């Protein structure tokens, strides 16, 4: 009887050890999977550059996907010219131009790779104008010819085509150095913003903290022209403004 109990105890002990090892293995696999998920692949250099396309005019949609009607009339959206700029470190900029009145809007944001197959690369572009507009676009690039399809929220899809590549970091750095050499301490600038003011930010991106605002007509100096965000000085305060919002007086 004692011998049987001893054997049973040994078997139970062995099962507990195997179970523990199995759990540890599962935990290790789970942790490994989580680490892989946390690692975000960067956009390959060969896909960096300017992508251009024109979104056709359409009628604004409501939350159900139907045409929005106000006072018995559909709400038209004019054709928009899109220029995406895919940059290093998964940064992206977007310039939109209204082809009806030529007004322009600028956004900055980040790129996230959704899927990467042999034939195509699907990206999610999360953008912001630094104020109240935060659009997201899905872009699927054909790897063979680098043409792409752009899809927005309740917007018609349209084609994009790469118009220039910027996969050489040395070229951009050289351009920035030349721009800084052209800075004149006596030269004054003002803003060019349809809202009548521009936010001055703590860092070089549209999600950075807003330090203060500059209104249309107020003058300031440019301290550095490196990259898309220029460092400015206004009333003894410094910060960064996107270069698209700055004009020379």
Which term fits the overall shape? globular
Q: Spell out the helices and strands N to C.
A: HEEEEEEEEEEEEHEEEEEEE
What is the count of β-strands?
19
Mean pLDDT: 81
Number of continuous helical runs? 2
Proportion of helical residues:
10-25%
Strand order in space, largest sheet: 1-6-7-8-9-10-11-12
Structural class designation: alpha+beta
N-end to C-end Cα span: 102 Å
Strand content: 35-45%
What quaternary form is this?
single chain
Radius of gyration: 27 Å
Largest sheet report: 8 strands, antiparallel, barrel
Question: Uncertain segments of ≥5 residues (pLDDT<50)?
Answer: 1-8, 10-38, 168-174
Q: How would you explain this protein's 3D organization?
A:
The strands form six sheets. Strands 1-6-7-8-9-10-11-12 form an eight-stranded antiparallel barrel. Strands 16-17-18 form a three-stranded antiparallel sheet, with no helix packed on it. A two-stranded antiparallel sheet has the order 2-5. It is globular. With 249 residues, the chain is α+β, with helices and mostly antiparallel strands. It has helices at residues 2-38, 169-181, and strands at 49-55, 58-59, 69-70, 73-74, 76-77, 80-87, 91-98, 104-116, 120-128, 136-142, 147-151, 158-165, 189-191, 197-201, 210-215, 221-224, 229-234, 237-242, 246-248. It has two helices and 19 strands.
Please describe the topology of this protein:
Layout: H1 2-38, E1 49-55, E2 58-59, E3 69-70, E4 73-74, E5 76-77, E6 80-87, E7 91-98, E8 104-116, E9 120-128, E10 136-142, E11 147-151, E12 158-165, H2 169-181, E13 189-191, E14 197-201, E15 210-215, E16 221-224, E17 229-234, E18 237-242, E19 246-248
Antiparallel strand pairs: 1-6, 1-12, 2-5, 3-4, 6-7, 7-8, 8-9, 9-10, 10-11, 11-12, 13-19, 14-15, 16-17, 17-18
């Amino acid at each position: 009887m004692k011998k049987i109990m001893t054997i049973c105890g040994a078997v139970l002990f062995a099962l507990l050890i195997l179970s523990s090892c199995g759990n540890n293995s599962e935990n290790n696999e789970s942790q490994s999977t989580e680490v892989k998920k946390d690692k975000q692949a960067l956009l390959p250099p060969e896909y960096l550059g300017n992508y251009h396309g024109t979104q056709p005019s359409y009628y604004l949609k409501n939350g159900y996907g139907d045409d929005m009607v106000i006072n018995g009339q559909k709400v038209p959206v004019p054709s928009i010219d899109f220029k995406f700029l895919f940059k290093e470190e998964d940064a992206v900029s977007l310039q939109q131009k209204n082809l009806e009145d030529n007004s322009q809007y600028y956004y900055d944001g980040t790129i996230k790779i959704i899927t990467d197959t042999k034939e195509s690369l699907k990206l999610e572009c999360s953008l912001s104008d630094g104020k109240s507009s935060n659009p997201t676009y899905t872009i699927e690039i054909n790897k063979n010819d680098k043409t792409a399809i752009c899809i927005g929220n309740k917007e018609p899809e349209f084609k994009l085509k790469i118009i220039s590549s910027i996969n050489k970091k040395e070229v951009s750095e050289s351009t920035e150095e030349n721009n800084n050499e052209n800075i004149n301490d006596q030269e004054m600038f003002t803003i060019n913003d349809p809202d009548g003011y521009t936010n001055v930010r703590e860092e070089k991106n549209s999600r950075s903290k807003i330090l203060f605002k500059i209104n249309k007509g107020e003058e300031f100096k440019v301290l550095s022209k490196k990259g898309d965000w220029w460092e400015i000085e206004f009333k003894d305060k410094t910060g960064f403004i996107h270069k698209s919002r700055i004009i020379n007086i």
